[in-house]
Amino acid sequence: MAFTAGGRRQIAPAQRLTDFVEGDLSTSLNDTSYQPGLKSAPLHSLFPNFIGSRLRKGFTAFDQKMRGFYTEEANIIGVESRTSSPVNIPRNERLEHPEIHNLFPCGEGGGYAGGIISAAMDGERCAEASIIGL
User: Fold this and answer.
1) Tell me: the pLDDT tens digits for 49-58?
2) Range list of H helices, 2-115
3) 75 vs 2, which has greater pLDDT?
4) How far is CA 35 from CA 7, 12, 73, 115, in A?
């Protein structure tokens, strides 16, 4: 649905944060560094209701902790459709590649994490393993 909302090209569907929370289609979007560009789309309707409603509540609640977070100057761009790498670089029980000495595949790129926190934790494990292995 996100691919279709972006025009079935690499253009990303986007919406101003305030419009997402209020359930309105954005009539304009903020500038972005994403080179293929953005297309206004009703991202609020692309998520299942139980996810969209929690995001809306979370965005407004976060503004209570970090004033200025909830603003029309923020874009929401695309939807996360894959949380980890589609490849999995092999590694052994020492977290090292089984054929390439001192290569420690880790994090999302190596296929061992699905987000920022799990990637950081896996990176820490691999860093420790590389020190122990030296």
Assistant:
1) 898 899 999 9
2) 2-5, 17-22, 49-65, 107-110
3) 75
4) 15, 10, 19, 24
